[in-house]
Amino acid sequence: MVLQWSTDDLVDLTGVGDAVEVLDRKIEGGPGARLRDLRTRGADFRREFAGTGVPLRVDTCDLVTLPYPTRFGLFRASRAIAPFLSITNRMLVIRWNDSDGRPRVLLFEPSDVKLGRNTPYFAELARRTPAPIIKRMVVEHGTVLDHLAHLRITPDEVDYIVFDHLHTQDLRRWVGTTAYQPDLGERPAPTFPNAKVIVQRDELTAMSDLHPLQTPWYQPQTYRDIPVDAFAPIDGSVVLGPGVAVIKTPGHVFGNQSLALNTSTGIWVSSENVIAAECLTPEHSGLPGLARWSASWQQEVVLNANTIETTADQYNSIVLEKSIVDRSQTDSRFLQFFPSSELTPMWTNPGTKPTFSHHAITHQS
Q1: Which of 164, 169, 168, 186 shows the shortest CA–CA distance to 177?
Q2: How many angstroms separate the CA atoms of 73 and 224, rounded?
Q3: What GO molecular function annotation could you give as one example from this UniProt entry (predicted)?
Q4: In this structure, are residues 227 and 189 in contact, taking their beta carbons and an 8 Å threshold?
Q5: In this predicted model, what pLDDT tens digit does every residue of 194-214 receive, in sequence order?
Q6: CA distances from 125 to 128, 131, 212, 306 (A)
Q7: Beta-strand (E) ranges in 305-364?
Q8: Sequence-distant (≥ 6) Cβ neighbours of residue 307 within 8 angstroms
Q9: Which of 67, 72, 114, 119 has the fewest CB atoms within 10 Å, measured from its CB?
Q10: How many angstroms separate the CA atoms of 164 and 119, rounded?
Q11: For the chain, which residues make up each domain, given as ranges?
């Protein structure tokens, strides 16, 4: 047990949002039955969610572009010769007013890029890679705080912090700690003093006793001294505000979750379940191997699969996401799925240039 507190301590915390019954009812049967059921539930949720309204504003903020193994990002499907592709991590900033008029701010994927480098997998990759190559392959676009300042949002205005999962994430500077941190040289005060981290209880439970498949991707020791009241745990899917929901999408990790947004262009979903919109419609992909692999194996999606915690569940969760979103208004072959880490063309990575990219979600009501 790495955490100083037990996940049982989270039980009495006040919940957030309104539960989504259509998604959270227990599904009976095996993976195939669950897949069929999720298609129906996704369509039902889509109709309900469209009626909740839209947020005031959605902004997209680029954080960092970095290398990622092709065999993980385009699981089994790619025929690219490049061992690595590039992904861009982005933060979404969502603003809305509650029914009582109270303004809300949610940060989706506000990664602390500097501390994220200590994740075991990426730390080892950096150790084995010459510095000049790292300099060419890693591009930092802007920090969380710089982006918020540009948007004229002060840290104390942030209500919610959400990640699709906690791979690579170190939250100590965002929510503070209860003890001195030797590696930071301080006991950090919370940068976002009023923010709650919305997380699936399943993921916090898993982090307390990691499986070997999970250990390269987490920094569990950094959660040891995080105050328990920094978390707002949920057990399923919730609508947080008009056109803003967090939906449970297990598979990539046990407690994976996705962000759903209803905007002026229709419904979007964002997560890291796939790294490119075309991975949801691989039959239209120009990436080497994807369309042929999808047809040969009769699989309709291409997973982002670095951990393979519960692969069938991840496949089903992607189909759920696929059943919720609208088609892109730019190119109707592709869907309004916005990867939180999106495949990005890089001259060093032949055969990995995406057929289609969203780059951003932009909305203002």
Answers
A1: 186
A2: 30
A3: hydrolase activity
A4: no
A5: 999 999 999 999 888 899 999
A6: 5, 11, 18, 14
A7: 337-339, 341-344, 363-364
A8: 167, 213, 214, 217, 252, 253
A9: 114
A10: 17
A11: 7-364
